[in-house]
Amino acid sequence: IGEDVKPFTPEKAKEIVMSLQQPAVFCNMVGDWPALHWNAKHLSAVLDGKRIQFRLGLKTVDSVPQFETRCSYLKATLEEFLAWSCGQPSCLSGPFSCYEHSKYWAYADYKYIARIFEDKPEIFQDIRWSDFGFPGRSGEESTLWIGSEGANTPCHLDSYGCNLVLQVQGRKRWHLFPPGDTSFLYPTRIPYEESSIFSKVNVASPDLKHFPEFRNTTAHVVTLSPGQVLLVPRHWWHYVESIDPVTVSINSWIELDVDHEARVEEAITRMLVCAIKSAENPGDGDRWLNPTEDEATPHAVNLQYLNKAVSAYFKCQKADVPEQACSSS
């Protein structure tokens, strides 16, 4: 195959993405994407001193997952982040000065590209998910992740869609577990985040005394390198860790028809979590909600979510069920 010929047509790539039930790494699919040049130095120049929020955690590995509720947060420029991650002495002042580079990692995670670069919409076209059979999907429907060595996301599954992840700079190690391993991963909804179900197990250092069933899991471990795209199928658990000094990745969640049912479940979960939280001591709030959730939403708002989710679910069911089957269902 010539260097500029991609191994899959957009139609074939989409067929794989929508039907494959195992994680897969696509190679040689994004060689002509301008986004491949989005290393942290390039992004620092594009952001031109704009401050973004970083999440900081300890590099020491504990048997308890480092949930986002246990992390510190600060705002800094990418320039300050890069100087700190290189261990430059200039970081004795500035936002990272309280966090020794040898002891902490930093992660600008889950940044909506449409929000971060809202004044530079032309940059959205650097990302071309059309090569995977999703025409019109660009950076506008994608998120950006920039981390230092050790930066990680606790093991969780996403309630909606499947996930395509492009590695741009550095390498990340993914520990993936199939949906069938769910009960062995001790799922929890606290900290609560809409659309994420966390595992109580720190899969990087499992406490088998407290979580003996974790022994029954089957981890699929993959190290994702620059230029590769990982497919995370629906409801696969994943723990992700940066293993190079600076990592940059871009992802997009692909909606699926089954998401309508998941949205009903998520709306009910939100209602229950908010109801229980409202009966709690207000001072305990930070242990319940993930920092990605601004606040507990009122019951009336939660009812609206549920009504909309149920309506969308039934509308989708009607569209899918042929006329003659309607009476039996």
UniProtKB/TrEMBL annotation:
<protein>
    <submittedName>
        <fullName>HSPB1-associated protein 1</fullName>
    </submittedName>
</protein>
<keyword id="KW-0963">Cytoplasm</keyword>
<dbReference type="GO" id="GO:0005737">
    <property type="term" value="C:cytoplasm"/>
</dbReference>
<comment type="function">
    <text>May play a role in cellular stress response.</text>
</comment>
<dbReference type="InterPro" id="IPR003347">
    <property type="entry name" value="JmjC_dom"/>
</dbReference>
<feature type="domain" description="JmjC">
    <location>
        <begin position="105"/>
        <end position="269"/>
    </location>
</feature>
<dbReference type="Pfam" id="PF13621">
    <property type="entry name" value="Cupin_8"/>
</dbReference>
<dbReference type="InterPro" id="IPR013296">
    <property type="entry name" value="HSPB1-associated_protein_1"/>
</dbReference>
<dbReference type="InterPro" id="IPR041667">
    <property type="entry name" value="Cupin_8"/>
</dbReference>
